[in-house]
Design brief:
- The chain is mostly helical and 148 residues long.
- The chain has three domains: 40 residues, no CATH class; 63 residues, no CATH class; 40 residues.
- Helix content is 71%, strand content 0%.
- Keywords: Membrane, Transmembrane, Transmembrane helix.
Length: 148
């Protein structure tokens, strides 16, 4: 006979009394432990790859939310297109999805100095991210050398 305390939490009677936040924390524990294991890996595994892995994992976790939002946006764009072409409806600027997409699609920096500034700014961000991740790796290497 199995004792109550050997059952998993989601099979006990107390599960019905736990709030949804408590259930969320219960189910997120394996993921958080996995992320901690990844971030505490030894040194040959660089910090930039850990960050990319974490971002990819979070993207796949958010897909059940992102996919319906994408489908809703797509169908709203179809509704807006039909409304503008056939019914002469005018959508407010806040709800003009097709106009915002066309502005974004046709965006171009015409001033060469602005383009140079943008390239320099993006290079600066890349260098800062690389420097921070390398610093974390070097601190971890020093910590490993001091504790072993």
């Amino acid at each position: 006979m199995r004792k109550t305390w050997k059952k998993p939490l989601h099979k006990r009677k107390i599960w019905t009394e736990i709030s949804w936040t408590g259930r969320f924390v219960y189910y997120m524990q394996p993921l958080v432990e996995h992320l901690f294991d990844i971030w505490l890996q030894q040194l040959p595994f660089p910090t930039i790859l850990k960050g990319l892995y974490t971002c990819g994992l979070l993207f796949f976790l958010l897909l059940p939310i992102l996919y319906p939002l994408t489908v809703l946006g797509f169908y709203y764009a179809i509704f807006q297109y039909v409304g503008e072409r056939h019914w002469d409806a005018v959508f407010p600027q806040k709800w003009d999805l097709i106009g915002a997409a066309s502005v974004l699609w046709n965006f171009e920096i015409t001033n060469k100095s602005y383009l140079l500034f943008l390239n320099m700014y993006l290079d600066r961000c890349r260098v800062i991210i690389t420097a921070i991740s390398s610093t974390v790796d070097y601190f971890r290497m020093a910590y490993c050398l001091l504790t072993n």
